[in-house]
Amino acid sequence: MEMEKKNLAIIILAIVLAASGIGNIILGIQLGLIEPVPPPKETLIIGTGSGPADLDPTFSWDSASNDVIMQVAETLFFNNLSHPDMPLTNWLAESYTWESTTVIEITLRTGVKFHDGEVFDADAAIWNFERLYYLMNHTGDLAEGTPRAQIHSLYEFSDGSPVFKSFTKISDYVIQIELYGPFTPILAAMSYVSCSMLSPASTPEKEYLDTATDDLVGTGPYDYVEYVTDDYVLFTRFDDYWMEPVMFDELIFNVMEDSSTRNYAMLAGDIDYLWGSIPDLWDTFNKSESITFRPSPKPGLAYYYLGINNNLINVTWRKAISYAINYTYILEDYFLGANVKSYGPVSPGYSLYYDDLSDVAPYCNLTIARQTLIKDPGIDTTGLTANDDPNDAAWLAANLRTLNYTGNSDNAYRADMLPVLDKWLGQIGIEVTDGLCTWARFLYLLYGQHPDGYDALELYMVGWGPDYLDPMNMIQPLFSNISGSNTAQVNDPLLEEYIEAYMLQPNELIRIEIIKNISLYLCTELYPHAFTFHPQSYSIHAADLYNVAYNVAGNQWLYPIKRDLDWTP
What we know:
Blueprint: H1 8-20, H2 22-31, E1 43-48, H3 63-72, E2 77-79, E3 88-90, E4 93-98, E5 103-108, H4 122-135, E6 164-171, E7 174-179, H5 186-189, E8 222-228, E9 232-237, E10 250-255, H6 259-267, E11 273-274, H7 282-287, E12 291-299, E13 303-308, H8 315-324, H9 327-334, E14 340-341, H10 366-375, H11 393-397, E15 401-406, H12 412-426, E16 430-434, H13 439-446, E17 459-464, H14 476-479, H15 493-504, H16 508-526, E18 529-534, E19 536-542, E20 545-546, E21 562-563
């Protein structure tokens, strides 16, 4: 099935944008020269910047892929994104009981079907867990040439050994899962898409789904139809869903990599829901009668940072870089005050686990940055003095080091950071070279698939969102030496001890203190990244939509959404 191409209004918008600039498009809409064309009432259209890189839940570890999977496949446990506190909820699991600190018995929900008509039961659940176990190579016999599931570290102890030990069928709808040892966040970890239940009849057991050709068959409210690369993803309603079926006949992810095109599609009424907005247009969205513009009361849980290769760039350079960046420019000038300063991976949205480290965290201070380099006997800083003069000729002329900066060029923020990073780091003798690339190439580098592995990255702008809602999930994947997402190649024994202590600790008050100690250590001793910001979440959608699952996790769950067919502006 092919989706109809963007309508005439969007073509006009693109022409006007190129010819006359942003202001004229807004004026054209306001004057009625560009008439908003609403999507069909029976179709929900999402404007997104990227299509899925991976269709298989056991391999997916990027938000664009997860957004697709979440509409189609479901897990035993789920954070209720419609609730302000997003509590962990039984989903395909009806209930559970801890038999011991390492054995959990789970009663599965009955009356659940896969999209191919197969029944979800204990056999299907165990088949999915054993498939995940195999693809993480926790069996030790993963076929040669098959890559290990990227998410394997989510289900491993700090020494790299597996958490899951066995999966046993007790009855048709009861299973037992045994762990090798106590693992505090296991239920939360099982809520991540990697533990999604797929139909054994429609899914390869020992191979990954091919995103270009295979079908994703789950139990969710939408049935996956197809993905036309860089164009759209199409879903249809699953009428036999175990809860009330969705309102819409079709769900479409309209892939528009260009953020301007995507944002003006929202203004033109060509899409229902905008993912990835331009701050300059927030006031316009807010004033529109046909658009709901809703800010979150708390900063989002996502974390954005300048990644620094810890293997190639030692702590002296990392500290100097962290103090050379003009965070005020990023937050106030570039993002117009829309985001909040980060002091580490744990956002204020994590409430009790968050520690305000503003008094000790790196900030823009050239004197400290330069003094850090001068104090290092391994760096030749002859003739250089520590001062805060951004125009100091000696520092600007110094050629102490060259570092490559990487990001996807179709992301405006990452592309725009290249010249300013070159300016800021040039003030401490670092030349920054251009390594901007396509999104596909950037993912290739972030996944460590380059022959040089993560050493192909030196400096890179990227973000991390939680897989599951535990603050350790913002730390262990990014900084543990066993993690497949430790792109910065952090390898610190003390940090590993902190992580292990947290994983084994059942007392939440003690876990809170461990997280705060880790945050302080990252911020004042290790400098593994240059911490930039946590996003302030904004939901932007058609005003006739309701039951939208607003949440600070950044997860896009579309099941509850309905349309008010009687709505008028």
